[in-house]
């Protein structure tokens, strides 16, 4: 039996071509240096598992006080048990041990398991499909000339996306701090439908903070435009508001995306009739383990579950299951180049071919990390190891 011998974080500098606005939305920007973190777990056989994350998610106290004590000396392949060991520490951690930190450790353990047995994680998890159609997920609306500043901009970009092979497009329209409301969302959705015709699947992810009446007005417009789903128009903490909305619309409601509560919150949404399509993310909902439980929950109720976000963790769950239709590829923008890997990766995990993304074939999660670049650009590190 191999046991976890060390848990380490390496913070390194890399280059991004995006800026983040005051409400956390990403927009295109000039190249700038940012810091990222590589989380690494190593077992007594010398096998490693990795996951990229934000430095603050796995700051030194999180590793020393929570993740290290939960993992060190434990069988490195007992992922379910280790997930619970970390998750149970969340209650007493006073908010310092996030679902994102839990997810980072969980993904690294899956990466290690895949490398141990020589299988990509999606196959290790069951292996359901080797490719999936991608929907083009746009960045949020902005005020950038030639960007996503007007309904016409969305329409022109949608045509471009269809010419690149996408058969589905999800609009993220204007969100706070942008000042617009429902009328402009409807104009953008109508302009895109007009531009791409009836055969391209369209989805909307809007605002996140509309009132019930605003969300209903927008949803009724989507009913008329034949949208495939309607995502997060309101604060997701109000499950009853989503049930109220779902009861009145023919467009399927998708959720919850950002709610806390992992797979248990998803069960509550299903039981309440608050969504028609379930949603869970690997990064935001606590890892591969709770995401898989949520997908199986949806399947048990004859529902689809669509995985939030891009990346290797999402692909692992999508490749292992059948009850969602799409991979969220993005965020995309007319001024941003999604297909060129950042300097710390040798290639992207999700190239687009004929509108589809193929599951990775390398053992583990499949991220093509450039370890030489990361070592050469390391600016800080911390960790803990067995004595
Ligand atoms: O708010 C944003 O910038 C996006 O909505 C983002 O969170 C995106 O990940 C999303 O919601 N995708 O579905
Ligand atoms: Mg969303």
UniProtKB/TrEMBL annotation:
GO terms for biological process: carbohydrate catabolic process. InterPro entries: Enolase-like_C_sf, Enolase-like_N, Enolase_C-like, Mandelate_racemase_C, Mandelate_racemase_N_dom, RHMD-like. Its cofactor is Mg(2+). SUPFAM superfamilies: Enolase C-terminal domain-like, Enolase N-terminal domain-like. SMART domains: MR_MLE. Pfam families: MR_MLE_C (PF13378), MR_MLE_N (PF02746). GO terms for molecular function: hydro-lyase activity; magnesium ion binding. Keywords: Magnesium, Metal-binding. Residues 151-252 form the Mandelate racemase/muconate lactonizing enzyme C-terminal domain. This is Mandelate racemase. It comes from Planotetraspora silvatica.
């Amino acid at each position: 039996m191999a046991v976890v011998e060390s848990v380490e974080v390496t913070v390194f500098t890399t280059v991004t071509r995006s800026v983040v606005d005051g409400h956390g939305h990403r927009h295109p920007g000039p190249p700038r240096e940012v810091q990222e973190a590589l989380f690494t777990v190593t077992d007594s056989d010398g096998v490693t598992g990795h996951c990229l994350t934000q430095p603050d998610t796995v700051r030194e106290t999180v590793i020393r006080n929570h993740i290290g004590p939960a993992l060190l000396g434990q069988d490195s392949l007992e992922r379910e048990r280790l997930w619970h060991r970390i998750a149970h520490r969340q209650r007493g951690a006073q908010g310092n041990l996030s679902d994102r930190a839990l997810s980072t450790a969980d993904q690294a353990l899956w990466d290690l398991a895949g490398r141990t047995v020589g299988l990509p994680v999606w196959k290790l998890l069951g292996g359901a499909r080797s490719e999936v159609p991608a929907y083009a997920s746009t960045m949020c609306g902005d005020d950038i000339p030639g960007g996503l500043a007007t309904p016409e901009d969305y329409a022109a970009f949608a045509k471009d996306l269809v010419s690149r092979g996408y058969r589905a497009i999800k609009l993220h329209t204007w969100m706070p701090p942008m000042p617009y409301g429902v009328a402009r969302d409807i104009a953008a959705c109508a302009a895109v439908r007009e531009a791409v015709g009836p055969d391209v699947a369209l989805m909307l992810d809007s605002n996140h903070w509309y009132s019930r009446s605003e969300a209903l007005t927008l949803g009724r417009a989507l009913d008329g435009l034949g949208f495939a789903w309607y995502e997060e128009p309101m604060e997701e903490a109000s499950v009853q508001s989503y049930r109220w909305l779902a009861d009145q619309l023919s467009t399927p409601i998708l959720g919850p995306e950002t709610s806390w509560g992992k797979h248990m919150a998803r069960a509550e949404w299903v039981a309440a009739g608050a969504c028609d399509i379930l949603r869970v993310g690997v990064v935001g909902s606590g890892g591969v383990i709770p995401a898989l439980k949520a997908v199986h929950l949806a399947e048990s109720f004859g529902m689809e579950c669509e995985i939030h976000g891009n990346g290797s963790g999402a692909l692992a769950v999508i490749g292992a299951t059948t009850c969602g239709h799409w991979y969220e590829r993005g965020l995309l923008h007319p001024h941003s180049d999604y297909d060129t890997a950042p300097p710390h990766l040798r290639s992207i995990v999700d190239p687009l071919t004929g509108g589809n993304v193929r599951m990775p074939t390398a053992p583990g999660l499949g991220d093509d990390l450039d370890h030489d670049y990361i070592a050469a650009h390391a600016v800080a590190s911390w960790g803990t190891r067995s004595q």
